[in-house]
Amino acid sequence: TYRLYNEAECKDFFSFIQTAKFKRVMKTKSVFVLKNVESNNEQLVDYIELLKLNRIYNKGAKCGALKKRYVVQEYIDNQLKYRNGRKFRLRVFMYIVSTKPLVVLLHKGYVLLDRYNNYVPFHKSIITHKKLLAYFKKQEKMNDYDYELIMNRIKRIAAQLNFITRKSYLKDARFFQVAALDFVVDESLEPHLIGVKGSPEYTKKNAKMVKSMINLQTDIVNRSASKIINYVLTRKQDIYAEISKEVVPMKYLEDFINFLQQKFDTAQIRKDFDELNHNDIDGLLTPQLTKHFD
User: Given its phi and psi angles, is residue 57 left (phi above 0), alpha (psi -120 to 50 degrees) or beta?
Assistant: First the structure.
């Protein structure tokens, strides 16, 4: 995957497509898919599309200057297909419960069938993992063990994804995020991550997961918020008590800031607040709240 809005990756991409090896392969098949991150549009990069990209980016000379949210991703041309040659994606849900500490739960989600060539609404393009596996068992392409291996590989990819992006997360006990990870599976039963959606769709089939997610997050927010509110109220009372001792009223904001710095250990207050702004996970991730997640 190459992010064309990232200068280094953009230059790597345009260097690669100038190679003789790439040009030989492009004569027989498309190698990449071009995606617009903001609109979720995607299309195969054929010879004509490649000429357009070379012109827009001046063969890589404009990398870093252009900030269009384009992503170029390897095209998996040997995808495993469902009934009647219909493509599908395994959409799993990644629920970042807490970033302080980092706790991530994974839900197996559902199977999303290709609907663009069949013109069906979203809710009618969803089937269960059980139905997909039953079809491939009948076709003798997959068994229970194979499917379990696929899901385990997906878990490892999700874990690696969080590991490499963890430094960019907002470190706050009240922060949480839900994302959908889309995978395709090739004919050798290897899953490939092809997309991440920050605002995934939910269906009635995910009702139990959504309910567990809401209950879990409500519990976390209530715990962290109550500790912080109590601490702030206590400090507020201390400030009022000190202000009441002052004979000369403070006229400017700078006077008030200087007053706080003289009367209180602001460094210790910041340290106390940072310790409070940390989720206590022990006893929180109960089986009742996490039974629909991995």
Answer: alpha
Chain centre distance of CA 9? 20
At 179-205, the pLDDT tens digits run 889 999 999 999 998 888 776 666 666
On the CB side of 219, CA atoms within 13 Å amount to 17
Beta pairing partners, 33: 44, 73
Of 293, 117, 152, 140, give the one whose Cα is nearest residue 215. Answer: 293
One-letter amino acid of 242: E
Nearest of 271, 273, 270, 239 to residue 256 by alpha carbon: 239
Residue 27, amino acid:
K
What is the band of 290 on the pLDDT scale with cuts at 50, 70, 90? low
**CA 288 to CA 176: how far, in whole Å?**
19
Pairing state of beta strands 42-44 and 88-99? Answer: unpaired
CA 25, 30, 32, 35: dihedral to nearest 10 degrees? 160
